[in-house]
């Protein structure tokens, strides 16, 4: 069974930084695109950043130049370095990955989410 587990959320003051981690586990053949999404209260889930298997990245305009997505395939992990955080970045952050499982084929998997709160 494939699972994604996020960590690294918390409470931070405006202008501060956080680093989110996402670790995949299970019978994984390979991981294609990985990404981070977020959902604020009363709003729809939105894309934050994605990274392809070859390292190409894509960012939402609202986080460009502040957030950096990366991955380490040897650890089956993705990361989101968030700098210059703003109150409007407050949301539950979810990891997403397109994974080829050994037993159950290809599918999109989601983590359980980690809360990020930016407040003074």
The count of strands amounts to 11
Report the sheet with the most strands, covering strand number, pairing sense and barrel closure: 7 strands, mixed
The class by helix and strand makeup works out as mainly beta
Low-confidence stretches: none
Compressed to H and E, one letter per element, the order equals EEEEEEEEEEE
Looking at how many chains there are and whether they match, the oligomeric state comes to: single chain
Strand content: over 45%
What form results from the Cα inertia axes?
Answer: elongated
Mean pLDDT score, rounded? 97
Terminal Cα span: 40 Å
Helix count from the secondary structure assignment: 0
Rg calc: 14 Å
Proportion of residues in helical segments: under 10%
Short summary of the structure?
This protein has 120 residues and is an all-beta fold.
Please, could you describe this protein's structure?
- The protein has 120 residues and is mainly beta.
- Helix content is 0%, strand content 59%.
- It has strands at 3-7, 10-12, 18-25, 28-39, 46-51, 57-59, 67-72, 77-82, 91-101, 105-110, 114-118.
- A hairpin with a 5-residue loop joins strand 5 and strand 6.
């Amino acid at each position: 069974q494939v699972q994604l587990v996020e960590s690294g959320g918390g409470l931070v003051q405006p202008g501060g930084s956080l680093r989110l981690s996402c670790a995949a586990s299970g019978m994984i053949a390979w991981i294609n695109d990985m990404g981070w999404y977020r959902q604020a209260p009363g709003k729809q889930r939105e894309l934050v950043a994605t990274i392809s298997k070859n390292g190409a990245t894509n960012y939402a305009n609202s986080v460009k130049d502040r957030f950096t997505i990366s991955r380490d395939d040897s650890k089956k992990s993705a990361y989101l370095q968030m700098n210059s955080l703003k109150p409007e970045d407050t949301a539950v952050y979810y990891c997403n990955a397109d994974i080829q499982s050994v037993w159950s084929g290809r599918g999109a998997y989601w983590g359980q989410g980690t809360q990020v709160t930016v407040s003074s």
